[in-house]
Amino acid sequence: MKLNNIFATALMLGSMAAASAPATAQEADPWMHLYYKNTNGLLSFPMEEILQIGADSEEGNVIVTHADKGDIVLPMGNVLKWSIGANVPRLDITTDSYIYEVTSKTDYVSGKLKVSGHGLFEDLDDITVLLRGRGNSTWSWPKKAYRMKFESKQKLCGFKKAKNYVLLANYMDRSLMRNFAAYKFGELIEQPWINHIQPVDVYLNGGYKGSYMLTEKVGINAGSVDLSTEDEAMAALYELDTNTADYDEHPFTSTSYSLPVRIKDPDVPEDYTMAANWVQTRKNWFNAMETAVKNGGDEMWDYVDLESLVRYVMCFNIACNQELNHPKSVYLYTVNGGKFEFGPIWDFDWAYGFEPMYTKTDDSGDWGWGGGWGTTYPSYENPLLGTGDNEGHGGEFFLAMCRTERFLTRYAEVWNDFYTNHIDEFWAAFEEYAETIEPTSAADKVILTYSSTYHEYLTTPEALREWLQNRFEYINNPDNNYGLWQ
Length: 486
What we know:
Number of strands: 20
Largest sheet: 7 strands, mixed, barrel
Low-confidence stretches: 5-25, 358-365, 371-375
Mean pLDDT: 88
Oligomer: single chain
Radius of gyration: 25 Å
């Protein structure tokens, strides 16, 4: 076997990789990632396990010699590329009683968690964990999202200590970057309480479940809306969502816009009478704010925090995330009935033009919800907000605030600052994240089957980048109302 000079340098490069790779918490351990044409099109191993990488020119093969597995032989024509770099952390969950998959969103299964940080983060082992499913429409899909709950606060992958974490499956987002792009944008425009994201590989009882995003559970806690102890006792985090609420979320329909509201945090007092008063007070807070918005005029800004609203809507706008209109996964909170602040942002896989819901009707020229007669614009040119024929339509609530002069003036200022001073930073972070997830994304695609065009939209980071570039330019034109409405 004659060593190809390119492959012969792999071991030397591997020894240099730890020094050149970006370090998050510690220095990254160098891994080899080799991509090839096959149903199992990825090899990833720590470089310390690779004894030799060579090429047999006579047979036309690439040969990877592994310390334990021996020679792995691949036809040279099938090798697409190889690289040496970091690998994302690995989470191994072993349940006390064997299961292949989590089957409940309400009942937890118990087990142990092991975190292999691969040099980026601290390794953890034998951590007691409870695991259940999560999600609404996504729960029926083959790749499940999970919630992890711990007995005591745990620090995973550099996050703040927390008792609860979420593993997002991103099954419909084959680019695995839609949430990241929105959260990074929100970070750059200083939207409060942006979730952190860490890509990880997840194994359940030894079986590979795919590439996931580890992130914080939305709530009033140290990892999400981090209020003081005093403020937390007098706070309320609300979610607007048309999906069925749990009983302990105390769902109600708002008075002015008939919005579907639930109280997410904090927990109610244990005393029944106190609990009833507690819930009613928080309903009153929301309805008073909503009534001020409905009435219009400057009085609404006594109830609504302009700065968080501008940034919150902007995060949804760059992704054309029309969940504001349903509404679904829309969060806002108040302390003691004071000004309502919007956030955290959440759930951006069903976005980026995936669901263009507005068309211009031929009789009135207005944009309407869910179709109509006219022409649907290209996805990145769709307006963010519209009005609906049904009660409880979030678009009407947000338009009442967004069409005001005060909102538009501040929106233009925040947007122009991003476009002038931070857009290059956004694209640099986008490219870095795309490079980071390339191996885990390839592994994820090996095990998953996509059977319909439902999962064939913006499937790569490159496609998502092009869409965002177009959306940014569309928003940057004030004549388009910054993409907010038509």
